[in-house]
Amino acid sequence: MAAPLLEIEDLHTQFFTSRGVVRAVDGVSLHVDAGETLGVVGESGCGKTITALSILRLVPDPGRITSGRIMFRGQDVTKMDDTEIRAFRGNDVAMIFQDPMTSLNPVTKIGPQIEEAMTAHDRFTREQARTRVIELLTRVRVPSAEKRVHDYPHQFSGGMRQRAMIAMGLSNEPSLLIADEPTTALDVTVQAQIIQLMKQLNRELGTAMMLITHNMALVASLCQRVVVMYAGRVVEEGPVERIFKSPQHPYTWSLLRSVPRVDEARKDRLVSIKGLPPDLLNPPPGCKFHPRCPFVVDRCKVEEPPLAEVDVNQLARCWVLMRTVTDSAVIAAKASALSVDAVQKLKAPGADHGGDAGVV
Amino acid sequence: MQAAERPAPLAVKADPVLLRVKGVYKYFSVSGFGGSFVRAVDGVDLEIRRGEALGLVGESGCGKSTLARLITALLPVTAGEITFDGQDITKLRGTKLRRVRRKMQMIFQDPFASLDPRMTVGDIIQEPLDNFHVGSGKQKHERVQELLRLVGLNPNFTNRYPHEFSGGQRQRIGIARALAVNPSFIVCDEAVSALDVSIAAQIINLLQDLQREFNLTYLFIAHDLAVVRHLSDRIAVMYLGKVVETAGRNDIYDHNQHPYTKALLSSIPVPDPDVELRRAPILLEGEIPSPVNPPSGCRFHPRCPIARAPGICSEQEPLLEPHGQPDQMAACHFAGQA
After folding, report:
1. Which secondary-structure segment (H or E) carries B211?
2. Fewer CB within 10 Å of terminal CB in chain A, N or C?
3. Taking the domain A1-92+175-223, which CATH number applies?
4. Structural domain spans, chain A
5. Which residues of chain B are within 8 Å of residue A214 when distances are taken between CB atoms?
6. CB atoms B225 and A339 under 8 Å
7. Distance between CA atoms of residues A272 and A255, nearest Å
8. Is residue B13 a contact partner of residue B3, using CB atoms and an 8 Å limit?
């Protein structure tokens, strides 16, 4: 098999705050093959965005990549000097962000803004860049692009702004496009348009894509492979069909069952993961998920499991694995958490304290 | 089912409808546009039955949040009637309005903005009890603690401030505050959309448990149709200030009559790669028009895949009428033909 386009090995990115060291990315290894779409999923604070920013070496202060390698086409990004990293950003890897309004410059017209992204890299002359902007905007289906290049970002709607961002991301023909929650800020019907566009662009241009999201449905729709992150670590990785059909890590399993599906009638309570994600200043010992895991065993509390192969191309970081969990344990994990005692007290006669002085 | 458990006051009517919205309009004037108006809610009829959960969905700017504010009497209507428990609340003032307000509470979207950062959690939850002069000091304190336990928080947290809590915990505090005065009707405006998935699931389950235990009637407003389908008994779809379709939560998916409902539902990705391979979203052209100057006839016609325009769709506004399944209504000249 050919070497992957991007390979991250044991990446550690830490934030040195006054309260201590936050291990935002704590030994992440993953790869992206040429032309593929990889989904990176997890909740806020799991380190998915910091992993992406590390690839571009754009980690904000007081954060720093402390160890690990990020190999892109055989070159280590973490060792590039300033000139090399500037050539790398945009040319090789580009990134689009969640909120297109805050990532576009409000006082520069759309056209010149995208041109700037191209001329900054000396790949296109100013004239070439000017004609390319219109081509690019047409490609991302901005209607009457030749007129819209003269508009300011505020004259674009949310969906159109995201299209302009995608056009800018693609302007230097990168081989990897990182998209961080590209549709979260958009309305449902507009979201569908952008998903469709990203699918088409991936097919037409062969640009590999790393999609960072909390939305499992989006991953099912767009990605071939998925990496699940929790508390700065990869907890599961594999082809989309396998991860969705037979997730082995309890966190992946819970995540998939904690969102209702629009295409199914309500059958069951949602699986809710008890508690909160860990404080990364002070992570729990053993498996980072064990305080919230419904299937925890003693070993999880002291010893962290390795990311091990559990099936063909599927890796999971768990001592238990979902295939060994019994049905009764699954049922127990879905039970009501409502305090029966508190319900009784509040329902007791007179609990209202005011009597029925309300509306007839 | 629930009426039997409640001690029946003398004047209880057999009306199964708790809240009835009839021909309600809300226009906001726009300065600098030559006396024009944003038609946020433009002629809405809706019923919410006792004990049910009604989901209200639609995209940004469709008027769903404005409608919620009208229903809870936080905004005056421009025209129309809103009847809650037999009383037209648009005409109530003073003490009578306060009595009705006690029966309807709201849970807001942003748990960071909806709690006063300078009040302790205890004071936040107790405030509605103080407002309505419910109970003595000791009783109030006890009730606050029970409410905290009910929503899954430590009852000894009363002296803490909102900033000490996570988003999900704050949303629980907001729920405890809403439940403090024993309301019968709760409006949840995007109550889970700001939360992480695993936390949203906790809150969704909590809301369902509370509805069962306290016979609550809910109005769920959300743009996430999957969450709404999970939580609601019936669903109403809004587009540009109007209700375009109402139906049972399964009928709206399986037998939808309005082309907008169909497009909206087909747009939503499903967490299942096999389904995703087959799913063919109906992509709507363009974006929602301005509510200052809505399109003529059917408001959806410029984006509608089956519209006859110019023709009946661009000339005549369709009425919300029974179509499809029992208890289903749609406002479309070609209902069920998309």
Report:
1. helix B197-214
2. N
3. 3.40.50.300
4. 1-92+175-223, 101-173, 248-347
5. 196-197
6. no
7. 8
8. no
Query: pLDDT below 50 — which residues of chain A?
Result: 352-360
DSSP A70-106: EEETTEEGGG--HHHHHHHBTTTEEEE-S-HHHHS-T
Is B198 in contact with A360 (Cβ distance < 8 A)?
no
- Across the interface, of A159, A262, A277, the residue whose CB is closest to B270 is A262
Contact B168/A at CB under 8 A: yes
Check: CB of residue B329 under 8 Å from CB of residue B296.
no
Number of Cβ pairs closer than 8 Å across A and B? Answer: 195
Q: How far is A262 from chain B (nearest CA, A)?
A: 4
With a cut of 60, say whether residue B9 has pLDDT above it: no
Q: Provide the pLDDT for residue A276.
A: 83
At A97 the pLDDT is: 86
CA dihedral sign, ordered A139, A144, A146, A149 = negative
Nearest to B2 by CA among B235, B220, B230, B216: B216
Quick: pLDDT tens for A137-182: 998 888 888 899 999 999 888 888 988 999 999 898 899 999 999 8
Measured in whole angstroms, how far is the alpha carbon of residue A262 from the centre of its chain?
22
Report the percentage of chain B scoring pLDDT > 90: 64
Q: What is the dihedral of CA A284, A287, A291, A297, to 10 degrees?
A: -130
Residues 224-263 of B with CB under 8 A from A: 225-227, 229-230, 249-250, 253, 263
pLDDT mean over B325-329: 93
Q: What is the pLDDT of residues B218-261, one digit of tens each?
A: 999 988 889 999 999 999 999 999 999 999 999 999 999 999 99
Comparing alpha-carbon positions, the chain A residue that sits nearest to B135 is A353
Dihedrals phi, psi of A136, to nearest 5 degrees = -65, -45
Q: How far is B308 from chain A (nearest CA, A)?
A: 22
Indicate yes or no: CB of A338 within 8 angstroms of CB of B209: yes
Cα–Cα distance, B159 to B211 (Å, whole number): 28
Among A163, A126, A128, smallest CA distance to A148 is for A163
The whole-angstrom separation of Cα B324 and Cα A189 is 24
The C-alpha atoms of residue B274 and residue B252 are separated, in whole angstroms, by 23
Query: How big is the CA angle at B103 (ends B100 and B107), to the nearest 5 degrees?
Result: 120
Structure-derived torsion over alpha carbons of residues B164, B165, B166, B167, reported in degrees to the nearest 10? -120
CB atoms B198 and A218 under 8 Å: no
In a mutational test of the A interface, the residue from B211, B224, B267 whose CB has the highest number of chain A CBs within 10 Å is B267
CA atoms of B51 and B18, how far apart (whole Å): 9
Partners of A191 on chain B (C-beta within 8 Å) are 267
pTM (two decimals): 0.86
